[in-house]
Amino acid sequence: MFVNYIKRIDSLFVTIVLLFCLFGLVMVYSASFPISLMQHEDARFLFSKQLQSFVIGFILLFITAIVPYRIYGKLNPFFVMLSIFFLILILIPGIGVERNHSQRWLHVGSLVIQPTELVKLLMIIYFSYIYAKKQEYIDDFKKGVLPPLLILATVFLLILKQPDLGTATAILIPCGLILLCSGARKIHLILLTSTAVGGIVFFALTSSYRLKRVLSFQNPFQDSDGSGYQLVNSYYAIGNGGIWGQGLGKGIQKLGFLPEAHTDFIMAVISEELGVFGLLIVIFSYLFIMRRGVRIAILSKDPFAKLLAIGLTFQIMTQALFNLGAVCGLLPITGVPLPFISYGGSSLIIMLITTGILVNLSYHARKHA
Prior knowledge:
This protein has 14 helices and three strands. By secondary structure, the protein is mostly helical. It has a domain at 67-206. It is globular, with a radius of gyration of 21 Å.
């Protein structure tokens, strides 16, 4: 049984993702060694923590690749309660960890975890399973469409309280695509999309710091020492890279000029050091993942598997789009990490778990095909 599973596993998909993660580890070391040296007197400090997360994620990838995906459907009520529990726990003073005016983390022993990364995954599983079950009455808005949206709205508002509009929006988009692919009526989709967009715009414009971010990305040089500082230095990094880059480890902007060089703006470091070549590695890797994920969805016969493959694939793509758009000034800075690449243990582990679930979906799709 296990031998047959190994034969049918999507080895190319796993290989590309793992190579992509290894590339990310190299770039995390390159981008983080200056700050590691200054703050911890060890150039490998942040790299070592990321490597530990990769090892944990690697193990969990193969566990989730073996565990049948249908089990997640049975655990669905628990997943919803766990998501809301974590999001409330973060907001309790003294329990949630505050950084940069945001309360998004929890201390677990010596570790600091970001539960919203897990919540993204759990909400996609919840939406996929519920809308797969509601296929018979998906045309009925009150009975078929509305109930899961109330849960999603609760999660959205709790994440917004951290505050983290970027992550809250990054959850809405794949969940919206799941609803779209479930066969909901066009009029319902139009009304819900209009409501969601209106809500996001409202929350963005009614908060002074969010409004500053929205305005700064349009003309960062107007306040290059203030709200536009990050983006201006990102432009400098990208411009310095040119076609061939400055060489691995030879970037200048990470030496105290570019804030969050190893996290949100690691793509700027990649561009500076590897040039267009580094950009192509990242773009083609994401395109491969998207193509594979859509193919898994097309081949899957089970509605739950189809919707889950779509949700997981476009969760990765949404985060990649938000991050890359922010780095090059096409979108406001949201603080969403670059999947598989940015420093952040919670994000990397969840991305590898997501890959494991997609591998399991791929196995069942190939088996039936």
